[in-house]
Amino acid sequence: MFCSKCGEEQKEQKNVICPNCGNTVFTPYKLKGLKWDKPKESEDISIVADIALSDQKNEQWYYALNGERHGPVSRLELLNLYKNEKVFLGTKVWKYGMSEWADISHTDLIDKSIEPPPLKGEDINNTLVCILAFTPILGTLLEYIIAGAIGVASGSLWFITTILNTILCIIDERKIKKAGYNTKEMLVWAIFFIPVYLFRRAHLLKQKSVYAIVWCITFVIMIFAPTWISGITGIADPSAVDLVKEGTMNSYPNKTVSQMVDNYFLDPKWEAIIGDDRNTYVNVKRKITYQGKNTNVLIQYKLINDRSFEFYALEFNGVPQNMLTYTALMNSMYAE
Question: What CATH number has the domain bearing residue 60?
Answer without folding.
Answer: 3.30.1490
